[in-house]
Task: structure prediction
Amino acid sequence: MSLAVLLVVAAPAQADALPHVTVIGDSSAGVLQWDGASYATLSAGFDVDVESLVCRKLVKPGCNYLPPPESALATVQRLGPALGRIVVIDTGYNDTPTEVRDAIDPLMSALVTAGVEHVVWLDYVEGESQWLESNLYLDAAKARWPQLTVADWNAVALPHPEWFLDAAHPNSLGGRYLASFVHAFLVQACGDACTPQPEFCGLARTRNGFDYVRATAFACAAARATVVAIERGGAGTWVCSRNVDAMVELTCVGGEAKIELLERSPVAAARDGDTVTLANWTFRLRGRTIEGRGDSGRWVTLGRAPWCIPDLPREVLLAFRLKPLTPNGGCFTSRR
Result:
């Protein structure tokens, strides 16, 4: 079987509602608004509202404009319950270190009061000495606010002047690195709700027999159809590799999506008379013939005795209480 296969393009299953995130920034975060690629990277898997204003300050009204730009604190108060459960703060470059020090607790208090659970506050790229002092105050605040995560953007970005238009403002390239950097913190803050969990998708009948299919970030119906195509060996975008452990036989990755073929079914077969159901397939015993009905909804003949694995699932053959023909139970026949 070919190990790099498939014409079907991976399309992760969509969640009912994406986690809402609010980004409150000054012009240093503006790239996340005006650069489409940066915003796409930042918002992958999230509903992101970027509230960025030139000359914004943390608590005091902003600078250089009439009326002055709204402060980060005023934005929190204005949005209130419309804020995301996760809020990113990327402003403070227009504040003096003393203003940053005095602004942290009032701003954090307002965020927590509004119901924000996670605050990801980017530290300041130390292109100017005053921002080093601001970072010291920000770092000290972590002990006072368990909701606060200080994201060390300075350590990542300072060695890369090519990412910036000046000491503080990322260009398009820097914006994409910034977006990727912040996105990792969003996923961490979101926790299990943002980490796709594998789902057992049932059986796929392929030219090699029955496969047990598990999918992550990919719809089950599409995963089963994809497995059929994989077993045909058609070339495509999926990258597959054989595994050597006892649980997973084959792993195929396409973007964020993953499909796995399992060695055994993680769910039990249920028998009712001469009928056995396993996940999305139902089987019935007709004398020396077994028939099955899967996604198509119609009964198809799956062969006459003897029956062997993987032409039929092991769990189904055992549930029918058939007579084993081999010491390891690989083939069975009718007891009649």
